[in-house]
Write a structure and sequence with these properties.
Helix content: 25-40%
Number of strands: 22
CATH class of the largest domain: Alpha Beta
Number of domains: 2
Strand order of the largest sheet: 3-2-1-5-14-13
Strand content: 15-25%
Structural class: alpha/beta
Distance between the termini: 73 Å
Radius of gyration: 22 Å
CATH architecture of the largest domain: 2-Layer Sandwich
Number of helices: 15
CATH superfamily of the largest domain: ATPase, nucleotide binding domain
């Protein structure tokens, strides 16, 4: 059987997803690796470990395909967005890769927003520490590095030696690329302190950038399709490629995205490419399932793991909607959409003596879902359906609260490999096996949609203005009076 390999490289693991022309996932190989936090505000990957994981999953996949008598017709790459790593001209990394969660660029944020107020509308990327633009602006002597890139550039240089390419989707999420002019933005480059020759050559997401190099398990010369970033590919992998159908990803963090026909500037949201004529508008939240994992650490003596999370969610499921008057702002890691405030703090409001652990956990789940509902409110066009993927939606409580907070039918994709399957489908389209993205999306299967409870949805909708009011009030407080996180306490 002829198959395509979707290489899905994220911030905690790399997977090789194999699918045939029918869109059915045949196998998945996965290698995990740690996210390094060497100091507060930093979040890094060792690029050598990341590359080793890529080699390992491809070698394993090649052995499996050989045993089955199958043939890989292409490798198509999905990659995590917003990474930044310094490289030599040949793509050899010079140091650690800053992930999207790295916040050391926060000091440059206000100056960038004031200097270029129209930048986000041109580049489609909010000016935020996650952005490579902001990371570069905070990097001393960025001009001296031969080649700057992220996860995609690092991988393509490994897979196709000598390549200095990146896809349109990755470029559109950099904060450095003018979406309508289709070139690196001069003002953004100036603010970042780099020139265009230090960045890769932008190609279509369906472009074949070359043949696979040696030592990667699969036959040398196997076509390598540039692919796209993991968010837009999750839309394709869940079949959400038409207006009105929203893709929701909810794992450690979360995101809502809808496909539109061209670049659109929507305040508070991003706009990234899927293909030349399909673009994704949406918003990501920093805090998703991580809110429950935090509760596992803070509220139990057990080791934080999936079993502890499940036990806490069972307790929370016994608590009625709106947690009997308890509101949670689950901003444990600052927040992206719609606030885009890296220093935004979390809070519980309305806490009483009769509230128990189940109330605290339920309020945290509801806080995440209300945040996603605020993102959904800003999406362009009418929305009629949500396609969901991610570890959190395997929980009945998460799925129920999401459905009621969004006030939309939510269907869970049959395959959990949203971005990886999306890469396979994009690869099949690039090879001409599938004529267009609509044909690709038609191959995706989802379960029956859960319908919202109108009464509960109304209560969540009425509570959302309170969420916004509390965020505004909390933002006005000088929490610095309490001391820096992890720093000395105030003297008596």
């Amino acid at each position: 059987m002829d198959v395509v390999v979707g290489l899905d490289c994220g911030t905690t693991s790399t997977k090789a997803v194999v699918a045939g022309a029918d869109g059915v996932v045949r196998s998945v190989e996965r290698v995990s690796y740690p996210l390094r936090v060497p100091a507060p505000g930093r979040a890094e990957l060792d690029p050598r470990v990341l590359r080793s994981a890529v080699v390992e999953v491809l070698v394993r996949t090649a052995a499996r395909l050989q045993a089955e008598g199958s043939r890989a017709t292409a490798v198509c790459v999905s990659s995590a967005m917003h990474g930044l790593v310094a490289m030599d001209d040949d793509g050899t990394p010079r140091g650690p890769l800053q992930t999207w969660a790295d916040g050391r660029g926060a000091a440059a944020l206000d100056g960038l927003r004031e200097a270029a107020p129209g930048l986000a509308a041109r580049t489609g990327t909010p000016v935020h520490p996650m952005s490579p633009l902001v990371k570069l602006a905070a990097t001393p002597d960025a001009r001296s590095v031969p080649f700057w890139g992220g996860v995609k550039e690092l991988l393509l240089a490994l897979l196709v030696p000598g390549t200095r390419a990146l896809d349109l989707s990755t470029a559109s999420s950099s904060g450095l690329y003018d979406l309508r002019a289709r070139r690196w933005d001069d003002e953004a480059l100036g603010l970042a302190g780099v020139v265009a020759s230090q960045l890769g050559d932008v190609v279509a997401t369906t472009a074949v950038v070359g043949g696979l190099g040696p030592g990667l398990g699969l036959p040398v010369g196997t076509p390598v399709v540039a692919g796209a970033t993991d968010g837009p590919l999750a839309n394709l992998g869940t079949g959400a490629v038409r207006p009105g159908v929203v893709a929701l990803s909810l794992g450690t963090s979360g995101a809502l995205r809808v496909v539109v026909d061209g670049p659109q500037a929507v305040p508070g949201l991003f706009c990234y490419a899927l293909t030349e004529d399909r673009w994704v508008v949406g918003g990501a939240v920093n805090n998703g399932g991580s809110a429950v994992r935090w509760a596992s650490t803070a509220m139990t003596d057990a080791e934080p793991d999936d079993a502890t999370d499940a036990r806490l969610l069972q307790e929370a499921a016994q608590v009625p909607p709106l947690a009997e008057g308890l509101l949670c702002l689950p901003h444990l890691l600052g927040e992206r959409a719609p606030w885009w405030r890296p220093g935004l703090a979390g809070a519980y409001v309305g806490l009483r003596r009769d509230h128990r652990r189940g109330h605290l956990v339920r309020a945290a789940v509801e806080g995440v879902c209300q945040q996603l509902a605020l993102v959904r409110r800003d999406l362009p066009g009418p929305v009629r359906e949500v396609r969901a993927t991610g570890g959190a939606v395997t929980s009945s409580l998460w799925l129920r609260v999401l459905t009621d907070a969004l006030d939309l039918p939510v269907a869970v994709a049959d395959s959990p490999e949203g971005s990886g399957l999306g890469a396979c489908l994009l690869g099949l389209h690039a090879l001409g096996v599938l004529p267009d993205l609509d044909a690709a999306a038609a191959l995706v299967h989802v379960g029956p949609a859960l319908q919202p409870d109108p009464a509960v949805a109304t209560r969540y909708r009425r509570a959302r203005p309170l969420v916004e009011q509390v965020v505004a009030a909390l933002s006005a407080l000088d929490l610095g009076l309490l001391g820096e996180p992890g720093g000395p306490t105030l003297a008596p």
